[in-house]
Amino acid sequence: MSLPIAPMVIRGNVITDNLIEVGGRGGDLTFLTPDAHRYLDKLPLGNPARLADLYALSFADILDYAEALGERLDLATNPHLHQACELSYRTAPVTPTMVKGSYLGLRNMLSRAAITEAVESTVGIKHLEGWVKQRLIDGTELEVRCFGARTLHIVAGNATSLSLLTIIRNMVLRSDAIIKAPSNDPFTALAIARTMIDMAPDHPLTRHLSVAYWKGGDTAFEERLYQPQNLEKIVAWGGYASMKHVTRYIQPGLELISLDPKRSASIIGRDTFESDASMREAALRLASDIGALNQKGCVCARVVYVQSGTDAEGLARLNRLGQYVYEAMLGLPNTLSTAPKRYDPALKAEVDALRLDDDWYKVIGGKDGEGAIICSQLPEPVAFAASLDDRTANLVPVDSLDEVMAAVDAYTQTVGIYPESLKDELKDRLPLYGAQRIVSLGYAAAMKWAAPQDAIEPLRRMGKWISNQIATPETSAAPWMRPSIEA
């Protein structure tokens, strides 16, 4: 049986020569792809003046292109997307129903209204369309504009939408992008790029996108590519080791925009226990935050702090909530969550060991690798909290929300909160400790690209913000007209 091919796309050209054999993450699929070393000189844009063709486009032109692309990203009719989806069943960290669901949703990201909203609320469309003027208090006239950049994107593979999000950001900023396809999603960005070529092969937006696969950590390759004469920015998603590796190449003229590893948490307030109905609502919402992406995302809940109380009655409330969460998790739609593709054996061993320590932990589920809810019987997370994955979460009882603050730090991305009224008490405190995103419980995976991410605004950071100062002695005090003084 012949191996599938992941071509290389370089600015409108599909390359299938000089193939080498590589393996996707997890070892489920071996595929062929062009040897990136053979095309190293072609990947960089080279002369930055070649970005000029993008500035012949208006923002409306970019929206027209995005809408047309969205119409073509139909899984039922697009052969590139269909093939990528089928192959991704084997490379993705999640199960086929979740992979297919994500592919079906791609076209929705390209709606005119959604892109306009995201750009207007972050960069501001007027800053992309021309120079925005203001007069300063000293009389200086200041113009500011956001320009595109030559950018390398090291994309994470735990969510299909990230490849398309990267392409959209590149289009609206009028940038040139090289996407390094991840080993657990080597086909999505390629499928979108090939669709763009089929749709408009000579369009500037098509001609400023490249997609290639190379093994991360290939120092001989990266030392030549990751240079300021080739790139101005690197946008990197990834784990601790990959981030540490990328930082070795950062130097003056080459900026790193780091979307680095995070963990998320949840807080369940005492009012949750006023009725069985509110407990069940909180349980369903929490199950969604745990189960989304099968807990593969930074946004997913792992440790949950529950203001149930730590006395016997409080622990009984906690354990009942845990049972409700487990039951709700098993009933989630299969496009959101399923039994894990592979339950981590090391994690399962840790969970199974806790079953023998039922004075301190109550373990609900997990015997069949479907995921588990661990209810601590003391106000401390499990020792392996940093390894929670595959729909395995830890509910920790607390008496006071002050106890939660010590667990929030700079690694804390998303905090889901229930009930909603509790947010007003916490939303001005949590950021002081490091929390970066606060959401209504159940909506952790409903990321809004119009919002900041990881406590930065990535779209603004991906652009180059250029200023033009206009001043004359008649409007602004001139430096050469300062009075002289004796030394």
UniProtKB/TrEMBL annotation:
One function term, GO molecular function aspect: acyl-CoA dehydrogenase activity
An annotated GO BP: bioluminescence
Species of origin:
Paraburkholderia caffeinitolerans
Pfam families (UniProt xref): LuxC
User: Which keywords annotate this record?
Assistant: NADP
Highest taxon listed in the record's lineage: Bacteria
For the keyword Zinc-finger, the answer is no
| Protein's name according to its UniProt entry | Long-chain-fatty-acyl-CoA reductase
Q: What is the lineage of its organism?
A: Bacteria, Pseudomonadati, Pseudomonadota, Betaproteobacteria, Burkholderiales
Q: Which InterPro entries match?
A: Ald_DH/histidinol_DH, CoA_reduct_LuxC
